[in-house]
Amino acid sequence: ERYKLGYHKVAKIIELLDMVDVYAVTELEPIILQRIGFKPFNSIQGAIDEALNRKDGKVAVLPEASITIPSPLGDS
Predict the structure, then answer these.
(1) Residue 16, Cβ neighbours under 10 Å: how many?
(2) pTM score
């Protein structure tokens, strides 16, 4: 059975997106990431460079983010 995102997790992600930009390097289609408020990148280095070029830019890396961020419904 697929993991279902609980409302409390959705609320936390929305709260997070109000405070920070989330850059994602993944095989998911960029449009899916954009729809949930993430910024897609083709490479980890590109995402890091973009973040560090921002004023007060900081980076946190989640190497196993698929455990933290589930795939959207309908994605196999």
Answers:
(1) 12
(2) 0.70
